[in-house]
Predict the 3D structure of the following.
Amino acid sequence: MGQLVTELKGRLGSRLAGLAPLLAAWLALAAYGVTLVREPVWGDGAEFGLQIYQLGVTHPPGYPVYILLGKLTNLLVPEPALAANLLSAVAGALAVGLLAQIAWQLTGEAWAGLLAALILAFSPHIWDSAVSAEVHNVNLCLLGLALLLMVTWERRPASRRLVLAAAMFGLSLGTYLANALLAPAFAWLIWQKRERWLGRLLLFGVVVAVVGGLVLSWTYFRAGAVLPLGVQTLPTSPRGFLAYLTGSQYGTTRLQPLPFYLRRIVEHGRTFGHAFWWLGVPLGLVGLACQWREQRPIAAALLIAFVLDLGYFTGYVADDYATMVNPAYFIFALWIAWGLHALARWPRRRPGLLLAGALGGLVAVGLFASQFGPRLERSRQTPVTTFVQSAFALFPPRAVVLAEWVKYTPLLYFQRVHGLRPDVTLVERSELPRCYAFGTVADWRDYARRSAAQGPVLVDNAHILAPPGCGLAPAGERWYRLLCP
């Protein structure tokens, strides 16, 4: 009888533990749903909503899988921007659940995976990406699934698991091409098995190349029908497609002086501290050390991926580099789960377990409580919609409007999706050449000067140099009209 009771308790405990990933995902989805932004957002977010509506092509390096998933969501949610925001929330919640599952498999402790997953769910960058149109959490969902399959394969090697992991990794290239940097981590896990490693590595590489190539080719074939925004060269030729995929027009990966990298490393440290409420950082470092002792192959693979992801974007020139390292946050959250697991075993199980639970709960609750109020308030506001409506009301008939990217995309979204002010010609005010259906604008100042000779031209920034022979006159809040002889 005692043995039967023990077996029943074990089965019940295993089933309850299996609910931890679902609980983590549902709690995250509830928080994201309540704080979901109900309108298009500035910049890239509005562009994603527009391209979901058009089933089009985004700015380089392209996110075709994200657009296709967004279009499927748009079939259920009529407003494209809201569909894009909702896709981010659902994908973010799934990524949180996957992290809890992976952590449970690695540590054997469902509660540690649950707490680490909630810490990840409520870290600022992850929450930011989950309530508005953004690619990062959709990317985390696919990467998390690939990592779960690889961890399962590492313990129980089977070709079908390896193929599925490769397919998910290939799909993830269609949500973020920089994931290619993480390939050495997967290759390491395959190599460390030693047995038939070369054949397995070739199988993995072929599947990734085929799946990734298929999804990325969407840009090449679709760009001729729906021109992408913010491009210097159209990806409709082999040369243009290569330039598009590499994002070479941005020049974001050129070498910088040593102080630049040192400053970025310090900034990364502060960002990580803020993301995990500072207490999570030592927990993650302890977790890495403990996993290294007990699961070195997987710990090494995670460390390779972490260093490559964080290292590449440390040298990224663009100011939003910190939002692009969500895979590094995902991996660090796994180490936090390991840190909680290690703390629960020391010095004696019960006091250590209580301390680990208290620390993990404190970080998760602290992150949630510090952000929930402002995020809820933002979800109830519509600053982008208000801006667009007031701007369109201001523009004179048949005006040419030059706006910087963050304003250009929401204006274009409302014009094309809702049919507002079709008489207005919208052009991005960029220092780089831009391609449009009517042709290429090599110099926006020259284009503005020529347009102002034929009709009204408005520019969204007062701190610009007027084109030669033209002056600037106030036309309303945020907008200035060019006056040419």
Notes: The CA atoms of residues 253 and 312 lie 8 Å apart. The chain has a mean pLDDT of 89. The chain is about 65% helix and 5% strand. The chain has two domains: 2-379, 383-483.
